[in-house]
Design a protein that fits this description.
By secondary structure, the chain is mainly alpha-helical. It is built from 30 helices and six strands.
């Protein structure tokens, strides 16, 4: 029995063995459960082929994680951009398949090198969480490139997303009832080449050994002479090439849509396989990817809905990560949940708070902001007036993210999914039960808080980047499954029912866009007041303390578990309320409106505005609102959002809030200097010594030194009175060397 356990837990053999046993158990379970309607061996084999492509993504993710201990959320988008380029070259310019293959892989290698040299190195001293968020910005940039590449390459019309013909498309073979072509064999061949090549690379080459050596501690590796920067560049190039290979090989089998955001759903399967492999084992990732591919194709066989399998990833991830949490090493788990670049902005110093010019400036800025919100609506075009309410709704979600990410330090990539939950609840109560408008908002918020707490429960055991993967899966599950009328038609309003806007108190007609906009402003004001009260309360201070140092906070009798769940609950409440307002604004609950891509965009909103600052979140929302509804192309929106986040993280880690508060502090220093007020909390304020006073101090020092020259010293042995010069040669005051 002990020998079996030792093999099962062996560091090299145990992982692949467990993966093989798991894959066999999956096959046996499918055979037993589907014995009366089994899909057939052909479906299983096609699932294996698709799973191998997910495995390539997972191996690329593991490569980067092993070298830098971050999760590359741009992994799928890099490959999608090169895949789109290959499709356009093949279908529009009729470039030979082999040439397009070389261009795609070469472009992937070049993209990986540029990303590492131009972006990743700039965050070398940042925390892992900050660097992982930076990869989201990189992913948005490559998503924008996906939309631009067809135009750059001369595509003047829509491109058919069907798989293009290749030299291998003419060779067919039958397995069961499923017809394959030789492109499937090409996938098997290249996956085998990758696995064998990487195994030899890590075991037999100097650079491979250097990657393994620098994974745990880059500083120590650099001291040992390992070229850490070069190693990082090689790893990013390999990972990008694997992503390009996976997406290129996918094109002849299932096609690749042109003109859409490909990444999050495909990335989720690769992430799931990598997490099952504990971000370590290539073999386990390979088998896990195959298992996920088989599950996906089996579910598609029965439902004919490709999105259902994505909903199953969430429970799989939760189960796997909760089981593996106690096996994570301290080196793997250290620092991933720290937002080290988060900057807390101090309030106006009490010395200046009641100065008239400061008071009047604050009042003027507040009045200008209120006037802009109330009367700026009239200056918008008709289209922007309709969408102004959506920007305010985004602002509510952004404030909820400040509470969760900026204050509690828990990263979420599925916040818009919580808004989707609120929209579903409000739509059900309004359309199917004719409930009161405010009751629907409150109930939606409460349900959102409960769901957020359920999601937050794993956060007590899963931290940082692993929690981010879970929330991404949650966002995809909400869109693909929980809001799908196919599976929850009895709970969701139909398009004919809709979600009507009510007529409140016989006076306020919410069908009027202006009235609804002002209502959204009122809800935003309540959200801001709630967040402000939380930040000033003991609970708010405890949330910050747990974020900064959990063990130190616990030593002061702070229950870190309940504090984290409070942050999840309040954040989920306001996100769900925002979703309820969004359902009323749209007049329906649509799955397309709650895409996971918007969750990533809202996270970037908070990063751009300032992750710990509520005013910064509002500034970031205005930035994104201007991009999204300012008649800017979708590709321009993605590029401006991605580049904006990267530039601010590089040069202004505090976001737009850092610029705002920096300007404010400069103004306060000017006021303090003009009025002669010393403010210790403002770093630029320091008491200076006038030149003449400095001269007096030096003169006094010289006089004091000269006075000590004439001082006398009495010998403690012979009681002789000695000058300082005589004391240096006095016998009783000499120190003799002692030999040990």
């Amino acid at each position: 029995m002990k020998s079996v356990q030792s093999v099962w837990r062996h560091p090299r053999v145990g992982g692949p063995l467990r993966a093989v046993v798991g894959l066999g158990s999956l096959w046996l379970a499918l055979v037993v459960l589907l014995r009366n309607n089994e899909p057939g061996i052909g479906i299983y084999l096609f699932g294996v082929i698709i799973g191998l492509l997910y495995s390539l993504l997972a191996i690329g993710l593991i490569l980067i994680y092993r070298a830098t201990r971050i999760i590359n959320f741009a992994q799928a988008e890099i490959g999608a951009a090169t895949g789109v380029m290959a499709v356009v070259l093949i279908k529009i310019h009729h470039v030979p398949y082999i040439v397009a293959f070389g261009i795609a892989i070469g472009s992937g290698l070049l993209a990986g090198m540029l990303v590492e040299v131009l972006i990743i190195r700039r965050f070398a001293k940042s925390s892992r969480l900050v660097l992982s968020v930076a990869t989201i910005g990189v992913g948005l940039v490559f998503a924008g490139l996906q939309l631009l590449i067809p135009h750059w390459l001369g595509a003047t019309k829509l491109i058919d997303p069907a798989p293009p013909a290749t030299p291998f498309s003419q060779v067919h073979f039958q397995v069961g009832n499923f017809r394959f072509d030789a492109n499937s064999l090409v996938v098997v061949f290249w996956v085998a080449v990758v696995v064998i090549g990487l195994t030899l690379f890590f075991r037999a080459t100097d650079i491979g050994l250097a990657v393994r050596g620098s994974a745990e501690n880059a500083d120590r590796a650099a001291l040992l002479g390992i070229p850490v920067k070069r190693v990082s560049t090689v790893v990013w190039m390999l990972a990008a090439a694997l992503s390009s290979l996976a997406l290129f090989l996918r094109v002849p089998i299932v096609g690749l849509p042109i003109g859409v955001f490909v990444g999050p759903v495909i990335l989720l399967y690769g992430l799931a396989a990598a997490v099952i492999a504990r971000m370590e084992s290539f073999t386990t990732a390979l088998i896990a990817g195959i298992a996920l591919g088989v599950i996906e194709q089996t579910l598609y066989y029965f439902t004919r809905d490709p999105s259902v399998s994505g909903a199953l990833i969430l429970p799989i991830l939760l189960a796997v990560m909760l089981l593996q949490r106690d096996k994570l090493s301290r080196g793997q788990d250290t620092g991933v949940s720290t937002w080290s670049l988060a900057k807390e902005f101090r309030p106006i110093p009490p010395e200046l708070r009641n100065v008239p010019i400061v008071v009047w400036t604050r009042l003027a800025l507040g009045a200008a902001t209120v006037a802009l919100l109330l009367f700026g609506y009239n200056g918008l075009a008709f289209k922007q007036q309709i969408l102004a309410s959506v920007v305010v709704i985004y602002a509510i979600v952004a404030v909820s993210l400040v509470i969760l990410i900026g204050w509690a330090g828990q990263i979420s990539l599925g916040q818009w999914g919580l808004a989707g939950i609120g929209a579903g609840v409000a739509g059900n109560l309004s359309a199917l039960h004719n409930a009161d408008f405010f009751v629907t908002l409150i109930v939606a918020g409460v349900v959102g808080a409960v769901v957020a707490v359920v999601i937050g429960l794993p956060a007590l055991r899963i931290t940082g980047l692993y929690l981010a993967v879970t929330t991404l899966a949650f966002g995809i599950t909400v869109q693909n499954y929980l809001l799908s009328p196919v599976y929850f038609s009895s709970l969701l309003p139909t398009h004919s029912d809709g979600v009507p806007r009510p007529f409140l108190y016989g006076r306020f007609d919410l069908t009027n866009d202006r009235t609804f906009y002002y209502l959204c402003l009122v809800v935003l004001a309540l959200c801001l007041a709630s967040a402000r009260a939380l930040r000033r309360s003991r609970t708010g201070r405890a949330i910050i303390a747990v974020r900064d140092n959990t063990k130190a906070a616990q030593s002061y009798a702070v229950n870190s578990s309940s504090i984290k769940l409070w942050a999840f609950a309040l954040s989920g409440f306001w996100a769900a309320v925002a979703g309820a307002l969004f359902a009323y604004h749209q007049g329906q609950v649509s799955t397309q409106a709650f895409s996971p891509e918007l969750s990533l965009t809202l996270l970037i909103v908070v990063v751009i505005g300032g992750v710990t600052s509520i005013p910064g979140a509002l500034l970031g929302t205005l930035y994104i609102g201007a991009l999204k509804y300012g008649d800017i192309s979708p590709s321009g929106q993605l590029l401006a959002t991605g580049f904006g986040a990267l530039l601010l993280l590089m040069f202004f880690p505090g976001g737009l809030a850092q610029l705002f508060y920096g300007t404010r502090d400069g103004f306060l220093r000017w006021v303090a200097a003009r009025r002669g007020i010393v403010v210790p909390s403002l770093l630029a304020d320091s008491r200076t010594i006038e030149p003449e006073a400095e001269g007096d101090v030096l003169s006094d020092a010289v006089v004091t030194a000269e006075a000590h020259v004439d001082a006398h010293l009495r010998c403690p042995v012979c009681d002789a009175l000695l000058t300082m010069a005589e004391a240096a040669d006095h016998d009783h005051l000499q120190v003799e060397a002692v030999t040990v």
